[in-house]
Amino acid sequence: MSTARVSIAQINACVGDLSGNAQRVLAAARQAHEQGADILLTPELVLTGYPPEDLLLRPQFVQEQARVLDGLRGDLAQFKGLRVVVGHVDGTGRSLYNAASVFFEGATLGIYRKRELPNYSVFDEQRYFKSDTTPLTFEVAGVTFGVVICEDMWFDRAPIAAREAGAQVLLVPNASPYNTGKQDDRHRVALDCVGASACAVIYANLVGGQDELVFDGASFAMDRQGQTQARLADFAEDVQCVEVDAAGNVRAATAAAVPDARPPAEAQVWQALVLGVRDYLGKNRFPGAIIGLSGGIDSAVVLAVAVDALGAENVRAVMMPSRYTADISQIDAEDMAKRLGVRYDVITIGSVVDSFETMLAPHFAGLAVDATEENIQARARGTLLMALSNKTGRLVLTTGNKSEMTTGYCTLYGDMAGGFAVIKDVPKTLVYRLAVWRNLQQEVIPERIITRPPSAELREDQKDQDSLPAYDILDGIVERYMERNESAAEIVAAGFPREAVEQVVRLIRINEYKRRQAPPGPRITPRAFGRDWRYPVTNGFRETV
User: Fold this and answer.
1) Rounded distance, CA 267 to CA 199, Å?
2) Is the pLDDT of residue 456 over 80?
3) Three-state SS letters, 74-137
4) Full-prediction pTM beyond 0.90?
5) Contact 238, 210 (CB under 8 A)
6) Could you tell me if 412 and 448 are in contact, meaning their C-beta atoms sit under 8 angstroms apart?
7) H-assigned helices in 396-466
8) How many Cα atoms occupy the beta-carbon half-sphere of 261 within 13 Å?
């Protein structure tokens, strides 16, 4: 039985970089041609990058994309015998489609337009695109291929339509962002698709960071029996080739053997954070990063991620002690900076805080000391970090975690001041697990930072649990209420303390205004405070248990 060779390309596209993305497709085509491929499959909307958002409402953007696409079609003609499936936008004005064209030696064999348009979670494709129901198939070496795009695979209609048009193998361009558990979800959906369509599935996913989204690649080829026969790299560009026949048999040609097990969740989350940081700074052309290093667990993890993403030479750590900063915090911060080889500076904030307190003393007369004075310290640090950022052009990476963002345990214009919030979607309990995992690779975080009780060190003997439930309880409530959308009553019924549930639900509600002013950061859970969290700031609803 004759076979066709299909190269799968994981490409790190940049939204809006039309000519650059076209060059990335050309580079993948060159590699596929060298692999002897008959077909190159690229990711969804690879030419525009994903998601292009309201760029699609700019007529000039759509027109320029059409011009670049036409040029790419001509440039691909040099690769004789290679058919290239390119994801792009099709149409004009209010009639735009999320599409994929099949180019062959300068000709267009066909255009497929996406049928199922996701409009949930981080997706809002119905804002921009129209749907189409017309299948597209083409034959190579006696094998009939059908094209369906991303969400089409999650429902039966498009795969069945392709099969009814003669498809034996489905080519599936994707832009599927990472979150914990997502790779298992994709595998399950692919199995269902194979079962419904009786077709093999070849799946090409985008890779790279795009604002708060991180695309993990992890493309694969699944045969007609539902067995994964090839799998590409996680969180890295990759081009690998598989062979497929008309019976739906798939064999890895250049791809490595499918691993028996995926890496631990901590390893995948770490890779997602590293890629998110690298691409946010790289694609936006920041020359480096600045981090306020406190000697605590959060800033330690952020510093380690930043160094893994950018290199030590591009990261600067600044310790800004106050009268409440413990000696061991300063010792541990300096120790970690030395271990990682980053520039480390100390700027004491005592005189700055004293000046603020002196100026405000007449206005605070007769009022008790409270969180106001604590926030002055945080805002002094934020001002210093932003001044260094303005002077050097480096981006401030903030260090607040998801538990803090949820409850408002953070200071506007203080520790929230910065350009990218590296762990804003990482619960505190996971922060600790990430630190332990990273130290298993190389001990870069001093052990005492991991074992000490967490503290903001804004007053004497302060501990996080003075104000918040224990983090294992807090994070469990947040996961159920915010990520799974369970009710407060359901969470209490699951065994969580009623008082803690009421406290957390209230803190989530009253701190929406803070979260709206936070910088973006990588999304790594099924629901993050960002594109997929759209709660009103002004909100009269009170949920009861």
Assistant:
1) 33
2) no
3) HHHCCCCCCEEEEEEEEEECCEEEEEEEEEECCEEEEEEECCCCCCCCCCCHHHCECCCCCCCE
4) yes
5) no
6) no
7) 402-407, 428-441, 447-451
8) 4
Using CA atoms, how far apart are residues 90 and 101, in angstroms rounded to an integer? 9
* 18-58: pLDDT as tens digits: 999 999 999 999 999 999 999 999 999 999 999 999 999 99
For tokens 């001044």, the residue is 387
The Cα 537–Cα 517 span in angstroms is 11
Q: Is the pLDDT of residue 256 over 70?
A: no
pLDDT value at 63 more than 90: yes
Whether residue 545 has pLDDT greater than 90: no
Kindly state the tokens that stand for 277.
């940081």
- Token pair for 229: 């026969």
Give the Cα separation of 15 and 504 in Å (integer). Answer: 37
Residue among 14, 114, 125, 457 flagged as catalytic: 114
Which pair of structure tokens corresponds to residue 81? 């015998």
Q: What are phi and psi of 88, to 5 degrees?
A: -160, 175
The answer to whether residue 155 scores a pLDDT higher than 80 is yes
pLDDT of residue 262: 79
Q: Going by DSSP bridges, is the β-strand pair 315-319/289-292 parallel, antiparallel, or unpaired?
A: parallel
- Beta strand pairing status for 39-41 and 3-10? parallel
Of 294, 238, 304, nearest to 269 by C-alpha is 304
Give the Cβ contact number of residue 26 at 10 Å. Answer: 16
Q: What is the pLDDT of residue 459?
A: 72
Q: Write the CA distances from 133 to 89, 97, 114, 116, 203, integer angstroms.
A: 16, 11, 8, 9, 20
On whether the CB atoms of residues 519 and 396 are closer than 8 A, the answer is no
Average pLDDT, the chain: 95
Residue of 44, 151, 374, 479 with catalytic role: 44
Annotated active-site residue 114? The verdict is yes
CA angle, residues 393, 399, 405, in degrees to nearest 5: 125
Neighbouring CB atoms inside 10 A of 400's CB total: 25
The single residue of 14, 116, 125, 150 carrying the catalytic annotation is 150
Where do the DSSP E strands lie in 279-393?
289-292, 315-319, 343-346
14 is catalytic: no
pLDDT, residue 460, reads: 77
To 5 degrees, how large is the angle CA 384–CA 301–CA 275?
95
pLDDT of residue 314: 98
Asked if 150 is an active-site residue, the reply is yes
